[in-house]
Amino acid sequence: xxxxxxxxxxxxxxxxxxxxxxxxxxxxxxxxxxxxxxxxxxxxxxxxxxxxxxxxxxxxxxxxxxxxxxxxxxxxxxxxxxxxxxxxxxxxxxxxxxxxxxxxxxxxxxxxxxxxxxxxxxxxxxxxxxxxxxxxxxxxxxxxxxxxx
Length: 149
What we know:
Mean pLDDT: 79
Shape: globular
Strand order of the largest sheet: 3-4-6-7
Oligomer: single chain
Number of strands: 7
Protein backbone atom coordinates (compact mmCIF):
# COMPACT_ATOMS: atom_id res chain seq x y z
CA UNK A 1 0.00 0.00 0.00
CA UNK A 2 3.03 2.27 0.23
CA UNK A 3 2.94 2.61 -3.57
CA UNK A 4 -0.69 3.75 -3.47
CA UNK A 5 0.12 6.21 -0.71
CA UNK A 6 3.02 7.67 -2.72
CA UNK A 7 0.89 7.90 -5.87
CA UNK A 8 -1.92 9.75 -4.10
CA UNK A 9 0.49 12.13 -2.40
CA UNK A 10 2.37 12.96 -5.61
CA UNK A 11 -0.75 13.45 -7.69
CA UNK A 12 -2.38 15.70 -5.08
CA UNK A 13 0.81 17.76 -4.72
CA UNK A 14 1.08 18.28 -8.50
CA UNK A 15 -2.70 18.49 -9.04
CA UNK A 16 -2.28 16.29 -12.11
CA UNK A 17 -1.49 12.84 -13.37
CA UNK A 18 -0.20 11.49 -16.66
CA UNK A 19 -1.68 9.17 -19.29
CA UNK A 20 -0.71 7.83 -22.69
CA UNK A 21 -2.85 9.13 -25.55
CA UNK A 22 -3.00 7.91 -29.18
CA UNK A 23 -5.08 10.88 -30.31
CA UNK A 24 -7.27 13.35 -28.41
CA UNK A 25 -9.58 11.37 -26.15
CA UNK A 26 -8.18 7.94 -27.08
CA UNK A 27 -6.09 6.69 -24.16
CA UNK A 28 -3.97 3.59 -23.68
CA UNK A 29 -5.79 0.71 -22.02
CA UNK A 30 -4.86 -2.58 -20.39
CA UNK A 31 -6.93 -5.67 -19.58
CA UNK A 32 -6.67 -8.14 -16.76
CA UNK A 33 -7.12 -11.92 -16.99
CA UNK A 34 -10.92 -11.53 -16.68
CA UNK A 35 -10.93 -9.04 -19.59
CA UNK A 36 -11.74 -6.04 -17.38
CA UNK A 37 -10.46 -2.82 -18.96
CA UNK A 38 -8.35 -0.19 -17.24
CA UNK A 39 -6.75 3.10 -18.24
CA UNK A 40 -3.19 3.28 -16.89
CA UNK A 41 -2.12 6.46 -15.09
CA UNK A 42 1.19 7.68 -13.70
CA UNK A 43 2.11 10.22 -11.06
CA UNK A 44 4.93 11.72 -13.12
CA UNK A 45 5.65 12.47 -16.73
CA UNK A 46 8.94 10.53 -16.61
CA UNK A 47 7.16 7.37 -15.42
CA UNK A 48 4.61 7.66 -18.21
CA UNK A 49 7.34 8.17 -20.84
CA UNK A 50 9.26 5.15 -19.56
CA UNK A 51 6.16 2.98 -20.15
CA UNK A 52 5.85 3.73 -23.85
CA UNK A 53 6.57 0.34 -25.40
CA UNK A 54 5.84 -1.65 -28.55
CA UNK A 55 2.08 -1.68 -28.00
CA UNK A 56 2.04 2.03 -27.23
CA UNK A 57 4.90 3.29 -29.41
CA UNK A 58 2.56 5.64 -31.32
CA UNK A 59 1.18 7.12 -28.09
CA UNK A 60 2.29 10.38 -26.53
CA UNK A 61 2.30 11.45 -22.91
CA UNK A 62 -0.41 13.85 -21.81
CA UNK A 63 -1.48 15.16 -18.42
CA UNK A 64 -4.85 15.74 -16.84
CA UNK A 65 -5.64 17.89 -13.83
CA UNK A 66 -7.37 16.24 -10.90
CA UNK A 67 -10.68 18.09 -11.23
CA UNK A 68 -11.05 16.94 -14.85
CA UNK A 69 -9.92 13.43 -13.96
CA UNK A 70 -12.38 13.11 -11.07
CA UNK A 71 -15.18 14.44 -13.26
CA UNK A 72 -14.39 11.71 -15.81
CA UNK A 73 -14.77 8.86 -13.29
CA UNK A 74 -18.58 8.59 -13.55
CA UNK A 75 -18.34 8.12 -17.32
CA UNK A 76 -15.64 5.47 -16.95
CA UNK A 77 -17.71 3.70 -14.30
CA UNK A 78 -20.73 3.62 -16.64
CA UNK A 79 -18.48 2.19 -19.38
CA UNK A 80 -17.11 -0.40 -16.89
CA UNK A 81 -13.56 0.92 -17.25
CA UNK A 82 -11.31 1.16 -14.22
CA UNK A 83 -8.01 2.89 -13.53
CA UNK A 84 -4.66 1.11 -13.33
CA UNK A 85 -2.11 2.91 -11.20
CA UNK A 86 1.42 2.24 -12.36
CA UNK A 87 3.51 0.84 -9.53
CA UNK A 88 6.79 1.47 -11.33
CA UNK A 89 7.76 -2.17 -10.84
CA UNK A 90 8.41 -3.60 -14.30
CA UNK A 91 5.12 -2.46 -15.77
CA UNK A 92 2.97 -3.81 -12.94
CA UNK A 93 -0.20 -1.91 -12.18
CA UNK A 94 -2.67 -1.65 -9.34
CA UNK A 95 -6.21 -1.91 -10.80
CA UNK A 96 -8.92 0.15 -9.18
CA UNK A 97 -12.59 0.88 -9.94
CA UNK A 98 -13.21 4.37 -11.32
CA UNK A 99 -15.48 5.29 -8.41
CA UNK A 100 -12.75 4.37 -5.93
CA UNK A 101 -10.42 6.79 -7.71
CA UNK A 102 -13.13 9.43 -7.44
CA UNK A 103 -13.25 8.85 -3.70
CA UNK A 104 -9.49 9.16 -3.33
CA UNK A 105 -9.39 12.53 -5.05
CA UNK A 106 -12.74 13.92 -3.92
CA UNK A 107 -11.09 17.12 -2.74
CA UNK A 108 -11.26 18.40 -6.32
CA UNK A 109 -14.31 20.42 -7.27
CA UNK A 110 -17.09 18.16 -8.51
CA UNK A 111 -20.60 18.96 -9.65
CA UNK A 112 -22.75 16.99 -7.19
CA UNK A 113 -25.91 17.80 -9.14
CA UNK A 114 -24.35 16.16 -12.20
CA UNK A 115 -23.50 13.13 -10.05
CA UNK A 116 -27.14 12.89 -8.96
CA UNK A 117 -28.28 12.90 -12.58
CA UNK A 118 -25.80 10.18 -13.53
CA UNK A 119 -26.56 7.76 -10.71
CA UNK A 120 -30.20 8.70 -10.22
CA UNK A 121 -31.65 10.71 -7.37
CA UNK A 122 -32.87 7.57 -5.55
CA UNK A 123 -29.37 6.01 -5.55
CA UNK A 124 -27.36 9.10 -4.71
CA UNK A 125 -25.62 8.84 -1.36
CA UNK A 126 -24.58 12.16 0.23
CA UNK A 127 -22.15 10.46 2.61
CA UNK A 128 -20.43 8.57 -0.21
CA UNK A 129 -20.27 11.76 -2.30
CA UNK A 130 -18.34 13.51 0.44
CA UNK A 131 -15.38 11.22 -0.17
CA UNK A 132 -12.24 11.31 1.89
CA UNK A 133 -11.97 14.34 4.20
CA UNK A 134 -9.34 17.04 3.76
CA UNK A 135 -7.22 15.50 6.53
CA UNK A 136 -7.05 12.20 4.62
CA UNK A 137 -3.24 12.21 4.87
CA UNK A 138 -3.43 11.73 8.61
CA UNK A 139 -6.34 9.32 8.83
CA UNK A 140 -6.67 7.43 5.56
CA UNK A 141 -3.02 7.02 4.64
CA UNK A 142 -2.13 6.08 8.21
CA UNK A 143 -4.78 3.34 8.00
CA UNK A 144 -3.00 1.98 4.90
CA UNK A 145 0.20 1.76 6.93
CA UNK A 146 -1.68 -0.09 9.68
CA UNK A 147 -2.95 -2.64 7.12
CA UNK A 148 0.61 -3.43 6.04
CA UNK A 149 1.68 -4.26 9.58
